[in-house]
Give the backbone structure.
Amino acid sequence: MARTLTYIDAINEALHQEMERDDRVCILGEDLGLGGGVFKATAGLYQKFGEERVLDSPLAEGIIIGAAIGASLVGFRPVPEIQFADFIGDAVDPILQQAAKLRYRSSGGFTCPITIRVCWGGGTGGGLYHSQENTTWFAHEPGIRVLAPSTAYDAKGMLIAAIRDENPVLFFEHKKLYRTAKGDVPEEPYTVSLDNAEVRRPGRDMTIVTYGYMASIAMEAAEEMSKRGVEAEVVDLRTLNPIDKKTIVDSVRKTNRCLIVHEDTKTLGMGAEIAAILNEEAFDDLDAPIYRVTGPDIPPVPFSPPLEKFFMVDKEKVIAGMEKLAAY
Amino acid sequence: MATKVNRATAAAETPATRLSPELLLGLYRMMVKCRMCDEKARILFRQGKYAGNFYSNVGQEAGEVGAAYSLREEDWVAPSHRDWTSCIVKGAPLTACFAQLFGKVDSPDRGKSTPAHMGYPSLHIITPASTIAAQLMIGTGVAWGMKRKGQDNVVVSYCGDGATSIGWFHEALNFAGVHRLPMLYVVQNNLWAESVPLRLQTALTDLSDRAKGHGITGVSVDGNDILAVYEAATRAITRARAGEGPTVLECKTYRWYGHSEIDPAKYRMKEEVEAWKKKDPIPRFEKYLADHKLLDDQIKKEVRDEITREIDEAVEFAEKSPYPAPEEAFDHIWA
Ligand SMILES: Cc1ncc(C[n+]2csc(CCOP(=O)(O)OP(=O)(O)O)c2C)c(N)n1
Ligand SMILES: [Mg+2]
């Protein structure tokens, strides 16, 4: 039975259900046990499953991931948490050089089924070090799934699928969506494909490729432009690695125009890769250049409210991009 | 409470007399085997038989062998770049070890990992990355998992003196201390990290003092004294199995050759190298065994002849083993 849940409650429910189902699942990270997590994503788990399985780790991102990797080698399915994407730096080697490559460098001798939950994104007044997006550091790496759900339904289903998946997974949770994204979420456990983008809204005039919090902004912009007769198809990537090329290419073959919308800074962001894919695989189908609406190339995200507003992509900026693309 | 037992000069106290002749000869054979395999690996590199690089362990065999010799099959080893021979100690077949150098399909990773960065999954040897100290964190995670399962297995993880400066070393020790994990961190202090001398690495004299800051046991031993290493490691492993927590075991030693096969090591004084070669752990142990009537020239020759045969066969096997097909590059990226 489905009921309306917030994105964060969907995540919390997924963790509860997977820990109940499989006692190999354990979580570790900063402040997530006794405190239930700084956003309360892990509320109630410590009380229900105890310190053995819900471990407040030392304040050290490297060993949070390193310990999870090691435990996965002896049969556990750890779900470590990086409290803020901004602080993932010390864990970059464990994630990219260890988790993502352990299977490869041992030719399948070791597998590393860990799901790293990371809180990311701006728009909440977090300032320079509580707002960043660094999904593409990781999406660049073969061997680790990078997920960025945008709805409560996907948050639950993709987290459950990630925990059950044999690959290492980075699960990026957007903090702005935690309490603003609400939707129907089935009570029972379910999984959502980790290989497919989702068409959120069909349209014939242009394709908007996006993900994360920006998927909700793109939907708002598309609804408004619909009233003006422009029907945009919104493709929510959901998985940034590997990318579901087919869904993107199929959509652009139909609409012949593409706008890429992301919160990340522009240079070498996801948009660059999407544009390159379309260049290679749908060049003849394009009636216009591929445009990008993204964060500006400045350190994300300066604090003062007007500065943050300047950084963040909003509905108006997406609409301006859609108008430009439609007019070409 | 943190304790530190400096046994660097205490080899004479080693109660080796209670070790059986089989064990003593076993340690001896293994040191000689590691030495001979390592020297062979260097020759093969010089002959152009494989690409990449090799990080010789010659001179450090007492630490390499003594720390892991008493492990059970279910115990884990997390080696680093200079620990190719630790795979031999844990029981990996020489055929696989030499196939590893050549990047052939009969290496455990089918040629994906570099020559010296060898693992052996079925023997619980974790294939290392080149990132210094990363293996310590993964090993610590394995120890955490095994402790949670209620198993009395242990993890031995090797690193060098340089590795003790990096944050991940300390993150690992700290975590192991909090959870009293069954870990043995073997610090092979060979006085140099590539071309950086120890005095520029740390203000410490004994690297086992690193343990103090994490509330765990630290022990320093003469790393060229196989019996001192074996005794300290066995004690640490016994404590670890009993739930008494991790140990940092510093083995004070020296690498005879360059950092790698492409390093002429001109930054070291010839006198320093020669002085350490005189402290070769193998003749030293041979003298001990001879004094105890356990070894003579005949046995020495037999040991070496047998190992030579085994190496020759392994090298021949490895040379005949095929290279992976290029398409294999796509294998094992995703589960
Ligand atoms: C994180 C990291 N930094 C630098 C290097 C390059 N590097 C490889 S080995 C080494 C020196 C290691 O010294 P030590 O820890 O003393 O081990 P040893 O080589 O002496 O056995 C360096 C700098 C590396 N592999 N990883
Ligand atoms: Mg060194």
Notes: The two ends of chain B are 43 Å apart (CA to CA).
